[in-house]
Amino acid sequence: MARTVVPLTAIKVKDAKPRDKDYALSDGNGLQLRIKPNGSKLWLLNYSRPINNKRANLSLGIYPSLTLALARKAANEARELLAQGIDPKTHRDQQKLQQKEASESTFSIFADKWFELKKQQVKPDTAAHSYRALEKHILPSLGQTPIDDIRPKQIISILEPVAAKGNLETVKRLCRIINEVMRLAIASGQIDINYLTDVTRLFPSPNKTNMATITPDRLPELMNAISKARITLTTRCLLEWQLHTMTRPVEAATAEWEHIDLENNVWVIPAERMKMKKPHSVPLSRQMLALLEIMRPISGHRQYLFPSHRNPLKHSNTQTANMALKRMG
Question: What domains are there in the chain, each with its CATH number?
Fold first, then answer.
């Protein structure tokens, strides 16, 4: 005749005292409260594993964090799994593994991986500029989201306010970066499909505006404006240097004396300063040599040809010439 088990009560559970050895109080249907010599109390469910029918214990939690009522509820949930032929312990382990994988495959983690790869493909400053856009607009909302859970509606809700402000170029750039991150996740095997491929189609394209230009017949007018402008001598020489050399602002502003070869009348711009990462030689014209003679007393004893007004040990700001032109109108 089967032994009748009297269900536990909250008072009996609370009053259970430790003994010299572990012992258990049964609540029936495999639910037990194990009391250890140190006084700790652990809820266990003793059950038969579906695969091999061997007995096993499933830890449910520690009393008093897990009360008798909650322990019974947890035991019932485990029994429901057993009724479906699912081992509750295996089920729990799989859930923990999925949670761990989800925490290790968030959008933020793949964005960091993308950033590290991007720094090897483009200039670090360019990669950092793109990552800052993610930090500002995307990561606060989606950073901790598992990348395989991200869907278009989430991205749309984030980008719509940006588009509403008229920042369509930013929206376009963010769509491109997000898709690069998603393609990285596909390549790593974390996701099978990128649902965000066509998100950019939902937003209008930014209006393209050409860079401001000046026709050749207006060059005398420009040179006259530069000569009369209320700017420093260094800025005036920088403007003329950039016009004569046809170089980008960053290349002109960071010109160094050591790269000026007066024996061969050539300015050799090192590869790291050039966009294409190749050294570039610019012949020194008569006008350029005259500019060098003007600048020699000012910066000939320093590193940079066009020193900063605030700190002569540094070069002029790369936007100094452009800002001067804007102030001239």
Answer: 10-98 (3.30.160.390), 107-202 (1.10.150.130), 216-328 (1.10.443.10)
